Amino acid sequence: MTDLTKVENFNYSSTQKIFEQAQDFLPINGTDYVELYVGNAKQAAHYYKTALGFKDLAYAGLETGLRDRTSYVLQQGKIRIVLTTPFDPESDIANHLRMHGDGVKVIALWVDDAYDAFDQTTKRGAVAYMQPKTIEDANGKVRMSGIHTYGDTVHVFVERKDYNGIFLPGYEKLETGYEPGTCGLKYIDHMVGNVEMGSMNKWSDFYGNVMGFFNLVTFDDKDISTDYTALMSKVMTNGNGYIKFPINEPAIGKKKSQVEEYLDFYRGPGCQHIAVATDDIVFTISEMRKRGVEFLYVPGTYYDTVGDRVGVIAEDLNELKKWGIMVDRDEEGYLLQIFTKPVEDRPTLFFEIIQRKGAKSFGKGNFQALFESIEAEQARRGTL
């Protein structure tokens, strides 16, 4: 597995050349959808539409012939989320909910050949989750397969080149008449997995050896720490750079880190946060705040030195301070980012909102302020 942080004169341009030259045995076109198991899909759909600006797309449930579950599919930009609730209290979905609460179960990847993706990954050691299958209706056919990854999280490979329907066979168009309007979200930038201490290398190796990903960058406990807590992270990316999966593990600290808190309340490894991109972060955050979304507090002193650190930017720092938006710069440009508080009662899943102005990095310069904000929330919860 290639560690791109060890490439001489490393920058994103050099990594892109390596991507282009790589023999990518698992070509991925992007994130197809993300499925969350939730306690009440109907109410969750209302929240994601109202608070985050998603709109109706598709539905499957009793009315479409399903007897064991219901699913609402929402979309914003290129982001599709599926919210699924079980009817059977003894089902695998219900057991997942009982253990983890609401959270990400499926990270579905759009591929050219779902059968080959299954063959390529399972012969390299992946454990099968969904045997290759073809589902079809009057709008065509979709081929799918799936493998297990960290914890109870799975990847489903979706091949839809022969399908013209609204989402997948078995779903019908969803039209509730309630469309509160977009918040300007465009696509999934990255998704972060939290794993147990000592497991980061196991799962980064999994993505490298089983799925052909590259280690784009590594952060150790010197990069991501405060006086009290620390973590380590490896960012894994696929051949074309469309998919990025940072893998976090806790590091030894004086108090319980955010990763340990997540593992305690999620009852094991899982997807900690979904980073979604926008072209206008001020608009996005102002809309979300109006709709009741809560964000981590960034100390006002953060902005006293940010101009010296990041240099000239197009945005007004006073405006960024007003909304609590952080800034960081790398060799390619800068980025703007902000993090929500957990969107569940358990302190588990949250969202990152990010606007890239050329930067390809992950906001290393913001780690200190971000961690202090997270620790303040942990202290309020009594879990630090």
The H/E string reads: HEHEEEHEHEEEEEHEEEHEHHHEEEH
Mean pLDDT: 89
Protein structure class: alpha+beta
Number of DSSP strand runs = 17
Q: Work out the radius of gyration.
A: 20 Å
Sheet bearing the most strands, described? 9 strands, mixed
Show the helix and strand layout:
Elements: H1 12-21, E1 28-37, H2 41-52, E2 55-60, E3 69-76, E4 79-86, H3 92-100, E5 103-111, H4 114-122, E6 128-137, E7 140-148, E8 154-159, E9 172-173, E10 185-194, H5 200-210, E11 214-219, E12 230-237, E13 244-251, H6 258-266, E14 270-278, H7 281-290, H8 302-310, H9 317-323, E15 326-330, E16 333-339, E17 350-357, H10 367-381
Parallel strand pairs: 1-4, 5-8, 10-13, 14-17
Antiparallel strand pairs: 1-5, 2-3, 2-9, 3-4, 6-7, 7-8, 10-14, 11-12, 12-13, 15-16, 16-17
